[in-house]
Design goal:
Blueprint: H1 8-11, H2 17-23, H3 27-48, H4 52-69, H5 79-108, H6 129-136, H7 140-150, H8 156-163, H9 167-188
């Protein structure tokens, strides 16, 4: 007896009907999806970026990209994982552009280097502020690796692919970043008296 195997298309979970409606131009469906995804996107953007004043701008860019991409969502994996991939791509692109502009500024006029103070603005993420401060102490490459691995849940091979780097480089950045975070925790721990 000959058994027919399902095609890849048949194996996919049916996408959320709100996505199809949003892709077709239904503003209410798009707004409902974006409202649901906004806290997740904003948290991930904040973890990936060093400057609070960039978070809202990058989050807005991600939301625009999500609206443009609803038509390409095929139901492979969860909506949250798909959203995370878009968020990471947009946020890291913005971070890289910023680094490039900062490097050009440093190269063109070293005397104009500005010392940026941290402006504590109240926002919805105050309970996570301390963790973000710790992440702010890491070099950008290590920060990206730690966030993508521990927050987004990417494996080391996925991390390497997402960042476009060698597998060993990804593992090294992750190891170094976690080591620096552990050092920070050790400095906070009360010293035991002998």
């Amino acid at each position: 007896m000959l058994m027919l195997l399902p095609t890849d298309r048949e194996k996919l979970a049916p996408p959320d009907p709100r996505i199809a409606r949003a892709a077709a131009g239904d503003r209410a469906a798009a707004q409902a999806l974006l409202t649901e995804l906004l806290p997740r996107v904003r948290n991930l953007v904040r973890y990936l970026t060093r400057f609070d004043n960039d978070v809202d701008d990058i989050t807005q860019l991600v939301l625009v990209q999500l609206v443009r991409s609803f038509g390409s969502y095929r139901g492979e994996g969860t909506l949250e994982a798909w959203t995370d991939r878009i968020t990471v791509r947009v946020a890291l692109g913005h971070v890289r552009k910023r680094r490039s502009r900062e490097q050009q500024t440093r190269d063109a006029a070293p005397e104009l280097r500005a010392i940026s103070g941290s402006s504590e603005q109240p926002d919805d993420y105050s309970q996570r502020r301390e963790a973000v401060r710790w992440l702010d102490q890491l070099p950008a490459e290590q920060r990206e690796a730690v966030v993508l691995h521990h927050v987004v849940g990417l494996s080391a091979p996925e991390l390497a692919e997402t960042l476009g780097i060698a597998f060993e480089t990804a593992r090294s950045r992750l190891r170094l970043g976690m080591g620096k975070l552990r050092e920070q925790l050790e400095h906070l721990a009360p010293k035991e008296k002998p």
